[in-house]
Structure formats: structure tokens, C-alpha cells
């Protein structure tokens, strides 16, 4: 594993060149691709406004939070920007099992020269602070209160981090960056979709310099993304199929917004539907296995109606399975 401590961006590149965004804004790019740099997805579709918000975080050291519904690619968006900048990136999911010790560090017993000794093993926060790393906190609004107060220390732009157990004060690396993703904006489970989310301390929310919203893309862009993930449907016939799938997804989102449905089809589920259609060679069966069976039984007739409207055929109760052999 390479040590990043002495790495620095080597050049500035226009966002017009990297992201095809009409702007003279220039961003720092690393020459060497470290093992922590995410793999670039050539088919990824960037949202221009969110991309500029993320680039402001990388370029001007702004603390950036991306908020939006599930499956919209919030974390992936940050990673794909980092991939094109060759910027090392580490994701931490703030689930209920992440503790203060995981972030800060803890004493561990190690064997040296045949003897057991106690040695401090630093957590992900001090490790990242010392390096030119983009640290992403996923599901930021699901973090435990004790964990959130650890993060609050580093939300200041030049915030120093104190390791009390080691009597150390860590000065952040000049190219350390901090991002977060959240389904809510710290207001808790308002819609009923996101059980486990917390009300985030508003003093902490105030420390995020930029909050960008990433929601569902226009139909043409969503079709292009699905075709990119499932190349079998990249032809004209495939376009018509994916167009009908996206139309169903849009109806579920409208139904959810109107209060008719308690769930909706995310882009992630849409891609799964297309992938399962390739497996079973049957969009109706794949639809039921990918989405319909996740819905409340009382709502399934309405969802089946959405399918019928977009595909001009009834959704049968049973479908024969036709596996596509690879």
C-alpha cells in the first residue's frame, strides 16, 4: 500500500475538458492513480450542478453534502468526480455499528519481539486527515450522536483534530477533503422511507458549506445510463424497451409523490430490472421480481396498472422463466 502523505496535485484542468461543462473553472488533478482512486465509469452521467458543487469541494476545500432520494447515485457521483481527478477517495458508511473508536482509533494488543504490547491503532479520521484523501461519510443522517460529535471537529475548513489518548493535535493535510451523503437534510424520517435516520444537530448542519440536491434525471439521461449498464439494449429496440421501463419508474415516483404508493422505483432498481430482463428474457417477470414483490400487496394492482399503461399489456399472475444462457 502506497503512502499518500507527500502526494500533491500536479496540474489544473478545465472542467470543460473533464466533464463537458461550459465553464472556465479549473480543478486540480493528480498525475498518478493511487490504489484508493475509484475506477472511472465511462458511461456515468454527471449532473452539472451537483458536479460543480463537488468540484468546489475539491478545489476550494468546501465541506459538501449531497442530499437526495435513494438510488440516485449520490456517493457514486462523488467517486466518479474523484476518479477523473485521480483523487484518492475513501467511503465510510455511518451505520449503527460504526463507533467513535472506529473513527478515532483505539489501543490494541500486538506482538513485537515475542512480547505482547499495547499500541494505538489510529482510526479512519486521523488516517485520512494526514493525507490528500476525499473522505465520504455515507448515510450521514443515520450516524449515532457520539459519532457525529467526532465528525463535528473536522467540519471546520482548517479544523484541527485532537487525539486525546496520544496528546496529539493533527493539522489536516492541505488536500484533505470532506464530503457526505444523506437521504434527508438532517430533519429525520419525514417521508417514512428512511427508518433509522436521525435529526442532525443543526449546529453541525450549519458547518456544511454546500448542500446540493441530487434527484432523478430526465428520461433521456436515465435511458442512456441503463443502456450503458446493460449494453444488450443499446440498439433501437432496446431503447424502446428501456424507454417503457423508465416510464413505469416515473409513474411510481409520481404515485409516491401523490400519496398513492408507499415506495418508488429508484434508478438502482431500474437497472436491476433491465439486468434481470436480460437474464429471464421477459420484462414482465423481471419487473415482478425486481420491484412489484417489494410493494405493499394493496398497492400492487396500481403498480400493475402502471406496467400495463407503459407496455400495453396486462401483467400476468404467473410467468414462465426463460433463462438466457451465457
From TrEMBL:
Keyword flag Ubl conjugation: no
Domain Cobaltochelatase subunit CobS N-terminal: 6-37
Keywords: ATP-binding, Nucleotide-binding
InterPro entries hit by this protein: ATPase_dyneun-rel_AAA, CobS_N_dom, P-loop_NTPase
Protein name stated in the entry: Cobaltochelatase subunit CobS
Gene it is expressed from: cobS
Domain ATPase dynein-related AAA stretches: 64-186
Taxon lineage: Bacteria, Pseudomonadati, Pseudomonadota, Gammaproteobacteria, Aeromonadales
